[in-house]
Design a protein that fits this description.
Radius of gyration: 15 Å
Helix content: over 70%
Structural class: mainly alpha
Number of strands: 0
Strand content: under 5%
Oligomer: single chain
Distance between the termini: 39 Å
Order of helices and strands: HHHH
Length: 89
Amino acid sequence: MNSVQMAAKLYQCRDSAKTLMGDKYKAEIAKFSELIAAQAKRDGCSELSAATDLAAKAGGFGAVYMLAAYVELVEPSEPPNVKLTGGRP
């Protein structure tokens, strides 16, 4: 599987998690994101490595949610709030 195919699978996980979690998506995925960040820091590895390790251990929907959380870490579906001043970013 090449990197484009892998990215597509990761985005499918995020889309699936959004569908399954509905309104709870943002809050629930934040919990998974915290687990990924904590393991990456603890193990001195990348967030991707931590996410795939945790996903393998979780299996099933837990794996989908973990990979969705990784996507949110690297490319949030909602951009951070940006306050514009002076009419231009």
